[in-house]
Amino acid sequence: MSFGHTDHRTLLVPEGLEGERVDAAIARLFGLSRTRAAELIADGQVLVDSAAVAKSDRVVAGSMLDVTIPAMVDPLEVVPEIVEGIKIIHDDDAIVVIDKPVGVAVHPSPGWTGPTVVGHLVGAGFRISTSGASERQGIVQRLDVGTSGVMVIAKSEHAYSVLKNAFRHRTVDKTYHALVQGHPDPLEGTVDAPIGRHPKYDYKFAVMADGRHSVTHYETLEAHRFASLLQIHLETGRTHQIRVHMSALKHPCVGDLTYGADPALAKRVGLQRQWLHAVRLGFEHPESGDQVVYESTYPADLQHALDVIRDSH
Question: Where is the RNA-binding S4 domain (predicted)?
């Protein structure tokens, strides 16, 4: 799948290919599929005598062919890369607990080209040896790219199975803080509403009758003029769960434009993402059996937005 680095080649069209279509000629000269050749032409990576061409153009013997073949990368390849901003909160033989910054995915996936937690841990020399696909080794929970905070990664096979089980049986205390628009009524409560993929947008989720069972408990810590700071305990851990449930209550997370937040308010508090942070994670340590709790403070962008909201009278 990989050509390694970008490949740039220049050669003259041999007489035997006189009159062939450009895509066919390139496919034969470089051992590519016709589809791949057509993609390169469409992307402007092919020049004939220094001019752009269409795939159905015919080649003339002796013409100069310039072809750039960008490196194909495997979207699931783990690229070891130190990610600035990932803080190690705790590390032992069984687990590593990190503070994940915004803009970092937990593991590689198709369509994501940015930094990942898994890539950072490999780059930083952490040995994660667990079963499962290599790009998801040790991953027992996830946080969205746009969500920051505390998360645990299993380093050993035993820790992996114990923690996987704990998350599955909901014995892990997952506490988040969310700044949501308006004031939820009642001030504390539970949202029990199934979540599934949004019928229209595949990057979104929604409360759907045939979705997966999802339960969110919330309580109001601070109520301000435009927004409320909530403490949230997740009973289940669906993708985007808090964001979807808050949006369904008509109190989306401040800055969460995907789920209906007010862009003017987001701009006013200087947010480029949803105000949602994983503040605390408590579980039974897979080796010692002791109850352990790890915490993370608000990052600068969320703290600033909260300060603006607190000062808005």
Answer: 20-87
Residue 141 identity? Q
Residue 159 domain boundaries = 75-169
Catalytic residue among 23, 144, 256, 301: 144
- How far apart are alpha carbons 294 and 269 in whole angstroms? 28
**Into how many domains does the chain fold?**
3
What does pTM read for this prediction? Answer: 0.77
Cβ-based neighbours of 63, under 8 Å, separated by 6 or more: 12, 13, 48, 49
Structure tokens at 215: 């339960």
Give the residue carrying structure tokens 């001030």: 187
Of residues 123, 155, 133, 147, the one with CA closest to residue 76: 133
Active site residue 262: no
**Residues 176-233 pLDDT 10s:** 999 999 999 999 999 999 999 999 988 899 999 999 999 999 999 999 999 999 999 9
Residue 5 has what pLDDT?
60
DSSP string of 91-127, one letter each residue: E-SSEEEEEEPTT-BSS--TT--S-BHHHHHHHTT--
In a domain, 2, yes or no: no
Q: Are 191 and 272 part of one and the same domain?
A: yes
Angle between helices 22-30 and 34-42 (to 10 degrees): 120
143 close to 149: Cβ distance less than 8 angstroms: yes
Longest dimension (CA), the chain: 80
Q: What is the CATH number of the domain that holds 32?
A: 3.10.290.10
DSSP H/E element including 149: strand 148-154
Query: If we measure between CA atoms, which residue out of 249, 243, 250 comes closest to residue 276?
Result: 243
Same domain, 174 and 312: yes
Q: Quote the CA–CA distance of 22 and 58 in Å, as a whole number.
A: 6
pLDDT at 72: 67
**Mean pLDDT (whole number) for 258-274:** 96
Mean of pLDDT over the chain? 92
Residue 193 belongs to a domain with what CATH number? Answer: 3.30.2350.10
Residues 130, 193, single domain; the answer is: no
